[in-house]
Write a structure and sequence with these properties.
Structural class: alpha/beta
CATH topology: TIM Barrel
CATH class: Alpha Beta
Bound molecules: flavin mononucleotide
Largest sheet: 9 strands, parallel
Order of helices and strands: EEEHEEHHEHEHEHEEEHEHEHH
């Protein structure tokens, strides 16, 4: 019996992979993850926004001014190169010390930089690239078509410019989730990661201010991802990686049964330690043994919704007495 899996065309020893986070910004951590059985690691995203912030901090200006003149461009370029070169050094070290695939991650807001960064990540030696494209469409002027155009423009450009596998990490804020995800999978990408958990908002009633809620997810947040993986996995032409709310080996099994190719964990490692990866893999193997499965392929997608099924429990939203014991 083995837990080997092919994800984004890469051979993985386990479908349990570590999602992008502060934990994957440190090579010692990643070595520990590999020892504990991680199938792959997705590196902490490089955020263009962070680089712009570094530039502003170093120049104390938000845009070129007379005070800086031509030197602004020079300083900006230098700061950006410096931020990126530290990250590329980390990628090279990770590639030297790990045998599992190292997946880079970028989040940009300018069209040009998606391309510039993607090329640099490929050159730095990443085995694949996850484009962190989770957005919150809060502008009332932004239509679903606008969002779709942004996605397709970036994906089409990157596909032509780099040859390592590409996956897209999305949030769950789509007016037409099923259609958008299926169309993404037709664009020649190798995978979609569902879902990035956006930073949550809360209110401090004492000071009457908006604030961030906990950064970490809770186990109850697994259900949205589970629903959409199950609804979409048979309709997509690429791998699906499940993210958000995975804490136990049973959660890993559920995502695989729903049709995920890999299952990403982050909050669970922050809360319970990197060693939890070993428990997730042991639990997956124990379940497979109990069920008599020799390989992941024998059960992956077993509970994915059939494309013509319109009545699956995964599609039910309303409570009705007929379906539930409660009124
Ligand atoms: C502290 C922290 C940092 C994160 N940083 C990133 C990041 O840089 N890029 C990214 O795509 N996702 C990032 N995420 C999101 C995670 O990759 C993941 O999608 C999310 O936490 C849901 O999975 P979980 O329930 O296993 O935590 C971060 C999450 C946490 C908690």
């Amino acid at each position: 019996m083995n837990t080997n899996t092919k994800y984004l065309g890469l051979e993985l020893k386990s479908p349990v992979i570590v999602g992008s986070s502060g934990l994957t910004a440190d090579v010692d951590n990643m070595v520990e993850m590999e020892k504990a059985g991680a199938g792959a690691v997705v590196l902490k995203s490089v955020f263009e926004e962070q680089i712009i912030y570094d530039i502003k901090r170093n120049t104390h200006v938000v845009a070129p001014t007379d005070n800086y003149g031509d030197s602004y461009e020079y300083i900006a370029m230098h700061v950006a190169d410096d931020s990126l070169s530290k990250h590329f050094q980390m990628i090279r070290e990770a590639k030297n010390r790990l045998t599992i695939p190292v997946i880079g991650s970028i989040n940009c807001f300018s069209y040009e930089n998606w391309l510039t960064y993607a090329i640099k990540f490929q050159e730095a030696g990443c085995d694949a690239l996850e484009l962190n494209m989770a957005i919150l469409p809060f502008e009332t002027s932004l239509s679903a078509d606008d969002v779709e155009r942004t996605f397709s423009q970036i994906i089409n450009t990157l596909r032509k410019s780099i040859n390592i596998p590409i996956s897209i990490k999305v949030g769950s804020y789509f007016t037409d989730m099923a259609k958008q995800m299926q169309q993404l999978s037709w664009m020649g990408i190798q995978g979609v990661t569902m879902f990035n958990k956006s930073v949550q908002v809360d209110i401090d009633v004492e000071s009457e201010t908006l604030k961030n809620a906990s950064w970490l997810s809770s186990p109850s947040e697994i259900h949205k991802t589970l629903r959409w993986i199950s609804i979409l996995s048979k309709k997509m032409r690429c791998d699906l990686s499940a993210s958000t709310g995975v804490y136990t080996a049973d959660d890993v099994v559920k995502m695989l049964l729903a049709g995920a190719t890999t299952v990403q964990v982050v909050s669970c490692l922050y809360k319970n330690g990197i060693g939890t990866l070993a428990a997730l893999n042991d639990g997956l193997r124990a379940w497979m043994e109990k069920k008599g499965y020799e390989s992941i392929g024998q059960f992956r997608g077993k509970l994915a919704v059939n494309p013509n099924d319109k009545t699956s429990v995964a599609m039910r939203t309303q409570f009705m007495k007929y379906f539930a014991e409660i009124v």
